UniProtKB/TrEMBL annotation:
Keywords: Membrane, Transmembrane, Transmembrane helix. This is Diguanylate cyclase (GGDEF) domain-containing protein. Residues 337-468 form the GGDEF domain. Residues 463-486 are annotated as: Disordered. It comes from Asanoa hainanensis. The chain crosses the membrane at residues 12-30, 36-53, 65-85, 97-115, 127-148, 154-175, 187-206, 218-238, 250-272. Pfam families: GGDEF (PF00990).
Length: 486
């Protein structure tokens, strides 16, 4: 079977990027004129963009991620090409600097999607983060030192340094969440942004010192960004953990680091702008960034509220409004003191469903839950495990106290109830177990209470307590019963 040409094309594009970078470096060392270097600058960006757009054609959950990266590289190609075709300085023009700002925003979107690659659908938070970051970047890019850099190059390089440093922080934090290690894609992205940040920082210092032309060595250093990104592999999509194992996180401090940074920076710019020393456009963009950040904060609070509602619904029984089995397990796992567990099963409930219907049976279950709640205190947890089975967790209660409460619940549940003109009377079987008897975990506590409940059911209802078998002695011919009636 012939080998697919796809990897070969990608390899050829990477070789092209590396070769063009080396050629530019040789020209810089040899002191070649600027126009020759400017013509070669777009090639690494174009090769990297082609690699990314080829990944978009393959589809998959990371399609949007590489589309954003390819668009950022295409913007860099347009900016470098515009500068090469424009008279004057070969590296920077006003248009190329504006395209650089757009590229910063696209790179931020690329990183955000890379860290959320297990979520193939855009959400409102991603768009708000991008808007806040874009306005913040643009406000920095419009700073420009009056009288020295009329094209705003100091502002563009300052924006580049800040953006690259924030993106590096975001990749390192987001890639290592949950104890994970940074993969090869993360490492290459960090290295690429680090090289570009150093290049922009040195260029900014040069412009601040009155030098308008940038050394060719900085151009070579900045081209490490597309070359390194071209070698970044498609990261494997992390496996989703089961909902029982973890609670999904919609918003985290790492996710909000970038919009928070630009919001605070914009507030500082607005404070400085009161003196009138900042360009009006920079002040306007900073104000818009703050407003967008407020919108992002409002969305965050709504997401947190929705997450709380989802968390509550996942742990609540729809019929009775009681905690469900999952919630009971969480209460059991959080126990810090001895406790007792009651397990209840209604006797004769199936006949009610068969004779008067499931709707009436649901009413009986709701009435039963209300009757049990009347007997309990706020510290005692009543949960419906499913069907006609309930559980009651009694923190700090002894077996004797639990047995007394179980009989009171027995009386409350077995009292006749009325549905319309029909009188219904149910029995109940209750098993009792304590953590001092079965301290092997929540599952063991439920198991022992379940054993006791079925013994009570076999006796025709009532209450039975679980007692562990004592260690057998040589004199014992047969083991004693592990259950005792109450």
């Amino acid at each position: 079977m012939p080998k697919s040409p796809g990897p070969r094309v990608d390899q050829a594009l990477r070789v092209t990027a590396v070769a063009s970078l080396l050629l530019i470096a040789l020209l810089v060392v040899a002191g070649a004129p600027g126009p020759a270097t400017a013509v070669l600058v777009p090639i690494p960006y174009a090769a990297c963009a082609a690699v990314f757009f080829r990944r978009v054609r393959c589809g998959g959950v990371q399609q949007a991620t590489w589309a954003a990266a390819g668009a950022a590289m295409a913007t860099a190609v347009a900016g470098a090409g515009w500068a090469a075709l424009s008279p004057g300085e070969p590296i920077h023009t006003s248009t190329s600097d504006a395209l650089a700002v757009v590229g910063f925003v696209l790179l931020y979107l690329f990183v955000g999607l890379l860290l959320r690659s297990d979520r193939p659908v855009f959400n409102s938070g991603v768009w708000f983060d991008g808007i806040v970051a874009g306005l913040g970047i643009a406000s920095f890019a419009c700073l420009g030192a009056p009288g020295r850099d009329s094209n705003g190059r100091i502002g563009v390089h300052l924006a580049g340094v800040l953006v690259y440093l924030v993106l590096i922080l975001l990749v390192v934090i987001g890639g290592s969440l949950g104890g994970r290690r940074l993969n090869r894609t993360h490492v290459l992205v960090v290295a690429a942004f680090g090289a570009a940040s150093i290049a922009d920082g040195l260029a900014m210092l040069g412009h601040a010192g009155g030098t308008l032309a940038e050394p060719g060595s900085l151009v070579v250093l900045s081209l490490a960004l597309p070359v390194l990104l071209a070698f970044a592999p498609v990261a494997a999509t992390p496996r989703r953990r089961s909902d029982a194992a973890t609670t999904p996180t919609i918003v985290g401090w790492a996710t909000l680091a970038v919009p928070a940074f630009f919001a605070v920076s914009s507030v500082l710019l607005l404070a400085i702008g009161q003196s009138g020393r900042l360009p009006a456009l920079s002040t306007t963009l900073a104000a818009a960034c703050v407003l967008a950040a407020l919108g992002r904060a409002s969305l965050t609070f709504r997401e947190l509220r929705d997450l709380r509602d989802v968390h509550l619904q996942a742990r609540t029984d729809d019929l009775t409004g009681l905690p469900n089995r999952r919630a009971l397990y969480e209460h059991l796992d959080a126990l810090a003191t001895p406790a007792t567990l009651l397990l209840l099963d209604l006797d004769g409930f199936k006949e009610v469903n068969d004779s008067i219907g499931h709707a009436a049976g649901d009413q009986v279950l709701a009435q039963t839950a209300d009757r049990i709640k009347v007997v309990l205190t706020p510290q005692q947890v009543l949960a419906r495990l499913g069907g006609d089975e309930f559980a009651i967790l009694l923190p700090g209660a002894t077996l004797a106290e639990a047995a007394d409460l179980a009989w009171r619940i027995h009386v409350a549940v077995t009292c006749p109830s009325h549905l319309g003109d029909k009188q219904i009377r149910l029995g109940v079987s209750i098993g009792v177990s304590g953590t001092h008897l079965a301290d092997a975990g929540s599952g063991e506590l439920l198991r022992t209470a379940d054993i006791a409940m079925y013994v009570a059911k076999r006796r025709g209802g009532g209450v039975a307590a679980y007692e562990p078998r004592p260690e057998p002695t040589p004199e014992q011919v047969a083991p004693p019963s592990e259950l005792s009636p109450i």
